[in-house]
Amino acid sequence: MTVSAASAREVRVAVLAFQGSERASQDFAPTIAALNAALPEHSFTMVPLDLAGVASAVEEHSVDFVITNPGDYVVLEARSGVTRLATIESRDHAVPTDTVGSTVIVRGGVDHPTDFDDLRGAHLAVVSRGAFGGWQVIWREMFEAGVDPDALSEIVETGYPMEGVIEALREGRADAGVLRACMLENHIAQGLIAPDEFAVVAERPEPGFPCRVSSRLYPDWPFARLASTETDLAKAVTAALLQMPPSDGRAWTAPQDYTTVHALFRDLRIGPYAYLARTSVLGYVRAHWHWFALASVASLWWVIHVAHVETLVRRRTAELTREVAEREKAERRAQMHREERDQFSRLGILGEMASSIAHELNQPLAAIANYAEGMTRAIDRGKPDTAFLRDGARGIAGQAERAGAIIRRIRAFMRRRAAHRERLDLNVVLREALEFFHATAARKNIPLTLNLEANLPRVVADRIEIEQVLLNLMQNAVDAMAHSLAPAHGIVLSTSSGDGAVTVAVRDHGTGLSAEAEAHLFDAFYTTKAQGLGLGLPICRTIIEAHGGRLSATTEPDGGLTMRFTLPAAPEEQS
To answer: What is the distance between the alpha carbons of residues 512 and 360, in angstroms, rounded to a whole number?
Structure first.
């Protein structure tokens, strides 16, 4: 979209004209032209000013942006809140942004001054006492060299442009003068100064810098915005500056660090650090009493606030400590209740299986009695057969071990214990559970059929808890077949795997479930048994779900019920 010049908003850019308005226009005309081209909706205008004029323009907000030397920028930053957006970069220098320095010159000839100490009692020409490169940079170097400005006979202020310093030396009004770095070389190149007309005092080497200087170097001039300048405009100007092509070996780059400039003002105790020159603490406090009062109020508020917050934190910490302690206590009680409930459930299963367990124990005990009776008769005949006695003793030992194994399994199943999960083969766990249960099924003439999948994946589970679930499901299956019309079909126990899980199914051929029983099958205290508590299946479901599995029931079309539970398969062991 094309914007007419009449409708474009004027944007004023103040430029410090240390060499006069014409030279300032020549140096920064490309920048103004590039901004006008990049932001046609605005009309950028250059306003060349001296130091005092720049300060007044900023104070009165009659300009939007400022291009000035780094020292003046630091003063304006502290006094008026201006902010740098970019820094001049000299493409023909080894250090492109550190290019601001000063050169002290004297008339050439024999026995001219060579260092700062030789300037004692001399008339020194400067453009202004407030000029950064025209005086303050050299002031710092003289200060560090031990030469106080009071040691000079006079400081001659020539005013802008800086060529007035050269004229003061030529006219004899000054013995030495301070120029901005590279000004001497530029004038020699233009034929305005003869190569041997002036000599440099206290010259110091600066590797990669093409000009002779008497001081260290500082970051180049910044392009700064006023605090009142619109933020969007400042962003657009910054982007345009950084994209601007180089002109006369110079371009704009990201804003540089002006810490070295601050160090200069701090050492000289001028500008933003003028307060350091005040030796009276009481006077400083009086001059800034409002800040001290504000700081005192803020400190008092902070102390009260911290005390209040600390009180709240301590109170809340105590409450949280009590809550955590109560929660842990409740969790311990719940865990203890779960353990007691599981143990009662196991005892209940053993109670239901008591007659079968007694019958199973009677078998090895009866065998032991028969072996002992036979051995006694052989001894009573007076001619004992040692081989027969040895076989009998071995038989007694074997049957005693069988009875002991039964008792150990019962004790392990009954004992209260912490859960211990391990990698298990459910086929093995199922066979071990059947060693408990086969007598119970045999006494009621109910056959047990195993249909186990080979190479079943392992699961991570607690062996006793899984045995508890299996025994409970098998006992329920036997009870369901107490009045079955097809007991010969018996109970089918099967295992299978798929979809990252292992499934165990207990299929009976009993009477099945009514609609009401199926709806409340896993409800606590609901039972269809005359002497049941209604806790077996809820406990089984809790155990399976705690292992990350699922317990379910399915009524079969041809009669009976299938109870099945699934457990997640254990991840493969790392090789």
So the answer is: 29
d(CA 192, CA 184): 9
How far is 245 from 243, CA to CA, in rounded Å? 6
- The confidence score (pLDDT) of residue 1 equals 46
Q: What is the dihedral of CA 54, 60, 63, 66, to 10 degrees?
A: 40
Q: Strand, coil or helix: what is 62?
A: coil
Continuous H helices in 1-112: 21-38, 51-60, 70-80
Flag the least confident range among 272-276, 329-333, 522-526: 522-526
* Inter-CA distances, 329 with 115, 335, 336, 417, 419, Å: 85, 10, 11, 19, 19
448: helix, coil or strand? strand
**Cα angle value 559/563/565 (rounded, 5°):** 155
Give pTM, 2 decimals: 0.48
Type and span of the H or E element at 430: helix 426-443
Sheet (strand 65-67) strand order: 42-49, 9-16, 65-67, 222-225, 83-90, 250-253
45-61 tens-digit pLDDT: 999 999 899 999 999 99
